[in-house]
Queue: 2 jobs
Job 1
Amino acid sequence: MLTFRGTIKIEQEEEWFVATCLENDIASQGKTIEDAMANLREAIALYYEA
């Protein structure tokens, strides 16, 4: 299991929340903050899996 700690910035853009990891510039979005964070976790895991 991968453990990663980073700084996350969350911004609201109209109907969407955008979560960006500042250490590696990976971003994702969701309709709620929770969705954006879950999508970002998945994107970070896929990034480091490769």
Note: The two ends are 14 Å apart (CA to CA).
Job 2
Amino acid sequence: MKENEFDKKNLFGKGKDNTAYAQYFVGKSYLNPLTSSNCKLFFANVTFEPGCRNNWHIHRADKGGGQILLCIAGSGWYQEWGKPARSLAPGDVVEIPANVKHWHGAKKDSWFSHISVEVPGENTKNEWLEALSQEEYDRLNNLTR
């Protein structure tokens, strides 16, 4: 899907270059915060260009916490450490428990957007880890041909 076609389907818009977190992504991503920093629940539309994905990471929490992804446009991947990757499409919902190592992003030939919801909890913080290897990412994308 071409970028202009994708933009018509991306209901909440791409937002701005995700420069604050660029070091934790392979490829270019965009961030469009949907709630203010004063809100108890943080919602943001995260858009990944084709081939973009974030590093393995963990949403740490002593109690509660985690993340929810509401997929809204394009096609992507989600994977928890030690488990097979899951293909994502508009309408899919991913519930990520606290303290689970995972990554998510676009397929190599598709733009992808999801609404990211940070689940409130006690002593929450993100722990960013290593990038998914290019070999593993390529292997996943070759399965969809």
Note: The first strand starts at residue 16 and ends at 17.
